[in-house]
Amino acid sequence: MGRVPHGRRTDAAAVSTGDCKVRADADVNRGVSAIDIQRRLDALWRMESPTLLGCLLRITGNINTAEDLAQDVLLAALEHWSCAGVPDNPAAWLMTAAKHRGIDHVRQRQLHLRKQDEFGIELTLHGSDMQGDDALRLADDDIGDDLLRLLFMSCHPVLPMESRVALTLRLLGGLATADIARAFLQQEATVAQRIVRAKRTLAEKAVSFDAPRKAALQERLDAVLEVLYLIFNEGYVATSGEHWMRPELCEEALRLGRILAGLLPREPEVFGLLALMELHAARIPARTRADGALILLDQQNRARWDRLQIVRGLQALAHVQRLGGAEGIYALQAALAACHARATHFENTDWPAIAALYARLMHVAPSPVVELNRAVAVGRVQGAAVALGIVDALKDDVKLRDYAPLPAVRGDLLQQLGRIKEAHAEFIHAAALSGNARECAALLARAENCVPMG
Question: Measured at the alpha carbon of residue 81, what is the angle toward residues 38 and 101, in degrees to the nearest 5?
Answer without folding.
Answer: 100
